[in-house]
Amino acid sequence: QVQLVESGGGLVQPGGSLRLSCAASGSINSIRTMGWYRQAPGKQRELVAFITSVGSTNYADSVKGRFTISRDNAKNTVYLQMNLLKPEDTAVYYCTATSPSPFGLGTRNDWGQGTQVTVSS
Q1: 63's torsion region: left (phi>0), alpha (psi -120 to 50) or beta?
Q2: Residues 6+ apart with CB under 8 A from 15
């Protein structure tokens, strides 16, 4: 099992920046892919970005060019640098880690508790 703790959320003005951090503990050697999801009020949770164990990344179209995901394996931490923030980026941001299932059923996801990002003037 992987435990994930997010930090770095807060209130920023449009056009501002934030860097989210997600520290992993537990079965860290089992982690393959890490990523960020977000959920705005009244909306479904959506994938923001993910990064694989070899460093390949993918981004939602809505954040591409503004957000950057990175991973420090030595520190067991994944980051999300968010620039040029817009009000529509307001959401609870969740960190996730994907690992092989110990039961041979595929993969499992572990989730952080979420951190609030509010973009408002």
Answers
A1: alpha
A2: 84, 85
Q: What is the Rg, in whole angstroms, of the alpha carbon atoms belonging to the chain? A: 14
Rounded CA separation 34/24 (Å): 10
C-alpha–C-alpha distance, residues 121 and 113, integer Å: 26
Give the integer Cα–Cα distance in Å for 63 and 37: 12
Residue 55 main-chain phi, psi, to 5 deg: 95, 5
Annotate 27-41 with b (16+ C-beta within 10 A) or e (fewer): eeebbebbbbbbeee
Q: What is the pLDDT along the chain (121 residues), one digit of tens a residue?
A: 899 999 999 999 999 999 999 999 999 999 999 999 999 999 999 999 999 989 999 999 999 999 999 999 888 999 999 999 999 999 999 999 999 987 777 899 999 999 999 999 9
Contact indicator for 104, 88 with CB cutoff of 8 Å: no
